[in-house]
Amino acid sequence: MKVKPVNHAKAAEKFLEDAPHLKFHDERLWDMRQKRDQQMHLLPEWQDLRTRASEIKEHTLANLPEYLEQFEANAKKNGIHVHWAADAAEHNRIVSEILEKHGAKSLIKSKSMVTEECDMRAYLEPRGVTVTETDLGERIQQLDDQLPSHIVVPAVHKLVPDVARIFAKNYNTDPNDDSPQSLAEAQRMAARPVILTADAGMTGGNFLVAETGTFVVCTNEGNADLSATVPGLHIATLGIERLVPRMADLGVFVRLLSRSALGSPITQYTTHFRGPQKGGEMHIVLVDNGRSARLGMEEFWTSLKCIRCGACMNTCPVYRRSGGLSYGAVYSGPIGAIIDPTFNERKYSTLPFASTMNGSCTNVCPVKINIHEQLYKWRRVLAEHHELPFVKREIMHMAGKLMGQPTLYRTAINGTEVALSTLPRFILYNWLNPWGKHRELPQPVKQTFHSWYKKNRLKDGKASKEGEA
Amino acid sequence: MGSRETILATLRANRPDPAAHPLPPVAMLGDMDAGKARFEAALHLLGGQILLPDEEGTLASAIAKRFPDANVICSAVPDFEGTIRLEDVASPQQAAATDVLVVRSPFGIAEMGSIFLSEAQLNSLNSAAHLTQHIVVILSEQNLTANMHTAYAERPEFHTAHYGVLMSGPSATADIQGVLIRGAQGVRSLSVWWE
Questions:
Q1: Domain that holds residue A56
Q2: Where are the domains of chain B?
Q3: What is the pLDDT of residue A468?
Q4: Residue A237 lies in a domain
Q5: Angle, to 10 degrees, between the axis of helix A333-343 and the axis of helix A371-384?
Q6: What is the pLDDT at residue A273?
């Protein structure tokens, strides 16, 4: 059976209908973007940091096999068990086997996009492992059976009453609780006993350091450190692209990460794990899941530089007005739109079109990924691979013909003015014009630039050559 | 061929030309002020506090005044008593009853208001730093480093500790409708005591 492409436009339409949620979502993310700008303006060296971060990442990716080997050797020397997972299935199998060996039935975990990528909870739970997300936003999403809608703030599309409803159902709190403070406290009180009795803990990670065999976890709530240190068994899952060569390189990335993400100078916790704690056991699962193949894609490999700050999402007008869930993928927003098609080209073929091509994503990216250019390149690749939807393909085909022939184009443009001012709405606003769904078409101009130029400047008859222009 | 070999082989076949992407020198950028004022401003921004001496001037009296309802005050330092010593706390479950934990940090970072803790300061019970309701961190002005670059370049702890956390203020979240809440799942407050 053929996979159906995600209908991003339709999901976005639904999101747009809910005015209070839309307004909050749009404003909250824009606020994060503005806080990021404030931090940026405080650092005269900001652009140097971005350049340096980009160079370090590109160097690391070009030397990834050697650095991974170096990381593995150092981590093993420090007493960490290192595992390699080619894909999601292998990752889940490895984690399951570690848990089984320890007879672990309850797993507490902090947020990890890689475990989302692997859909790990769905694998472990039928095998008798209770998985509890301990990050507040991620826990809200788990209880609501939804994917995170944002890689940094997973429940950013929800309002207080949504959380109150979910917690009332699961934590027996007041369904009308309208205080974020008391709801957050309810999470703390519910999580603590689970944390204290868990058999195993799991975290993701932001960076791997080849030089020392360290992995680094940057979080705010304290739940990652609790998940890692309370149970005796700590499993960490990281993508193979998370590497940096030297401990001293972390300075560049830590200075950029939280400033880009939330507009705070640093996350409340920046934790360096170099080996198991006394009496404990530590495992790292290095996950490929399509990354090594992506490294070979000439136009798209630099997307592997991503440090998952979410700045591109916060700034994107399409993301802010459509919500992360509308992307139908683990990774949403502009970065999602350029990496999701590498997981499934057909399923995510619509996502590179969820962009106005304004380039803001590229401008805010702390590791200088040319996101909007990659969006454009994906559109071309998808067109070549015949993954465009029918209406888009036919309209593009017609537009291509029209624009390729100036005479035809000008006739059509003159016709458009007549059409826009005279045609009834049902002809202008229909399924062939998704652009007009939530917007008004422009007022027709009385005269095009070309006809004005012809009349006022080209009085010597040169206009007759227009067909050759 | 196992996954390790397959992954490494695919990476070798697919990678861009290493010669085109040299490793830049270690970055040493930005403000090099390692002063107390800069540290305190950053600490406040991240929700941390300075514990000031009261008229008695001792850490014990400052803690008693600041945390009047605290029952379990756990000390991880030799020069402060508390109600229990961290060496006598046997497990995370026992550490969870702590109201205030008093520790000494080997260094702070002026740029971020961050303090560093590792198993060396926590008697290898790392969870104690996160299970306690409040944490008081003893820090010396001489042990401030300017920023993240100088911290990673100069501090040996990053190369020796198995567990090394930079704590920058208390735990926090803004996951419910963007409202910032200090005191999420880890410590509810973080106070620095200058020595």
A1: 43-289
A2: 33-194
A3: 43
A4: yes
A5: 40
A6: 98
pLDDT of residue A455: 83
Residues A248 and A120 both lie in one domain? yes
Which of A351, A384, A417 terminates a domain? The answer is A384
Degrees to nearest 5, angle at CA B184 with B182 and B188: 60
Question: What whole-number distance in Å separates Cα of residue A417 and Cα of residue A420?
Answer: 5
Number of domains observed in the structure of chain A: 3
Residues of B in contact with A135 (CB under 8 A): 175
pTM score: 0.91
Residue A469 in this model has a pLDDT that exceeds 60: no
Opening angle at CA A235, ends A231 and A241, nearest 5: 150
- Distance, in Å, from the CA atom of B38 to the CA atom of A184, rounded to the nearest integer, reads 31
- Amino acid letter, residue A446: K
Tokens describing residue B69: 């309802």
- B-chain residues near A342 (CB < 8 A): none
Beta-bridge partner residues of B134 = B100, B189
- Note the pLDDT of residue A461: 54
Do you know the residue count of chain A?
469
What residues of B are in contact with residue A64 (Cβ under 8 Å)?
A: 11, 15
Instruction: Tell me how many residue pairs between chain A and chain B have CB atoms under 8 A apart.
Output: 264
List the single residue in B26, B166, B177 with the smallest CB-CB distance to A270. B166
**Closest CA of chain A from B80, distance in Å:** 25
Q: How is domain B33-194 classified at the CATH fold level?
A: Rossmann fold (3.40.50)
Note whether A245 contacts B: Cβ–Cβ < 8 A: yes
Q: Is this prediction's ipTM beyond 0.90?
A: yes
* Chain B residues near residue A242 by CB distance under 8 angstroms: none
Residues A130 and A255 in one domain: yes
CB–CB of A107/A132 below 8 Å?
A: yes
pLDDT at A430: 67
Q: Which amino acid is at A279?
A: G
Residue B8 sits at φ, ψ, to 5 deg, of -65, -40
